[in-house]
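One such given next:
>
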Amino acid sequence: MTVFKLPDLGEGLSEAEVLRWHVQVGDRVEVDAPMLAVETAKAVVEVPSPVAGTITALHAQPGDRIEIGAALVEFALEAGTEAADSGTVVGYMPAAADDYPGSEALPAVSPVTAPRARAVPAARALARSLGVNLAAVSGSGQGGLITIEDVLARAGPSARGGVAALQPPADFGAQVQELRGPRRAMAQSMTSARDSVAACTVFDDADLHRWRPGADYSARVLRAIAVAVRAEPGLNAWYDATHERRLLFTRVDVGLAVDTPDGLIVPVIRRVETLSASQLRAELDRLKRAARDRSLSSEEMRHSTFVLSNFGTLAGRYATPVVLPPTVAILGTGRARQDVLAVDGQPQPRWRMPLSLSFDHRVVTGGEAVRFLGALIGDLELPE
């Protein structure tokens, strides 16, 4: 008999949620046969069987959250079969500062050795109240920044119980929904962004009156992003705050913010600069379907170099989109509508697309941002 523990999923995460089992007690499984699907904050991952044998016990049910290293399933091994290596790593998640194909790193600046761990102020205060030594906490934020979630994870389950939960009056009829999967990941990433990014947003409009009827808005915006990157590469980059350097990319991999009932998911369209309009449309449709039916692989959600939020397909003109580290910029496109403009001294109705460009002002200058936005608008205003 052997116990298989939830392995390191290779994403720098401490836990996962059981989504569904493919096996039941009494089933015989082969080596590498899929046993269950778990959902992390980043993706749905299939966990394979490490041995050939018969399932004798399952230690979690769908919806349960289990920590890395916790007992997952028990096997009765077949004769001659060795016990599983519970330290197996499933997949690979490089650090944000790892080399990325097509990147150009600026010279690194040696950081000053800090006398204490880097943590957001709220996390430091919580650690004091819970008696947690921050030196023993691994930060999940940008550049190893320690967040509230990191402190709670170190303190253990009892710490969460010690924090008073919000309790509305009984007659309010509130429905309690635990944050899970993509929605929980969104809460964590937005908290990290708030704590680590110096956000700034500029706004403008693109005049679309020269577009032909039926033009593909999303494909045109993606093409314009690639053009703007050539004009101003500084926004197609990552910022490594720990070593005070940025990584500039020649390839344009755009993360597309997709709204789903389970929360915000950001799949990545690879090498936008090499794709035709029809190829962009096909890839957009494929990734949106995969995001909504939860079939995206973790690889399809990694390593964006720029982010696009096309919120205007729903409603809204302008916004202040949130930059997701380690990227340094995000473009929001609002709902296009007709405005009456003065053209050669005469009023004319013109279709215009509202644009909102947020950037990390720690590493992107205002001049770089407006040059990028100007190049993007210039391409959008072409007839094709």
About this structure: Residues 137 and 154 are 7 Å apart (CA to CA).
